[in-house]
Fold this sequence. Notes:
Low-confidence stretches: 1-18
Order of helices and strands: HEEEEEEHEEHEHHHEEH
Distance between the termini: 54 Å
CATH architecture of the largest domain: 3-Layer(aba) Sandwich
Oligomer: single chain
Amino acid sequence: MRLKLVFTALILCLLAGSAAADEEAVKKALQTTFSGEKIESVKKTPFLGLYEVVVGGELFYTDEKATYLFFGHVIDPQTKQSLTSERLQQIKDTRRISMDTLPLDQAIKAVRGNGKRKLVVFSDPNCPYCKRLEKELANVKDVTIYTLLYPVLNGSLPTATAIWCSPNRLKAWDDFMLKGAAPTGKDCDTPIETILQAGRKNGINGTPTLIFADGSVIPGMIPSDTIEKKLNAAGTK
């Protein structure tokens, strides 16, 4: 019996090693497809020989040779539940981006109250949800907000440039986002390309995206009470 258990354990170890090797091969094959982007994980699924791939918080599936990419939901016919939705929620709950990896010295910095709590926001000046978020952030006190200009929408780059090149960047940002006042800044050197690269590296695919002191990430607009709860839960750096 003991010999059988040892043999079984050995087989399981070999299978685990083989699966890991297969996952690494799939990841390597995908590198050319996602050049410049971080492949967060590759994991073999129990269905159809497919591999789950996570890039920038997005989930899709591929075959063992990474020949095809499959987007959509896998449904358990017994429970009628989306296995993909469950995994996406798990990914969302565990995803982390360290503030130390972000170019905060190139952010528009706003210190409110004691400024002890920290929040990073990737924001596009022409994004309507970003403007809604700014109205919510106006109600948040005792926080330091680092706004990273992330002009990913068509036509946003000139506006972001004008805001950065304004004499008072924070005022120009607030005036534009909250009051609709056009920025008056002229052309100058900006860190926007560096910020775009940092965003792509960390899988920031949309705006707004909020990052808290504990590294937790929330994509999309959320109300001020939720922001308060997240700031308190994340602590300070």
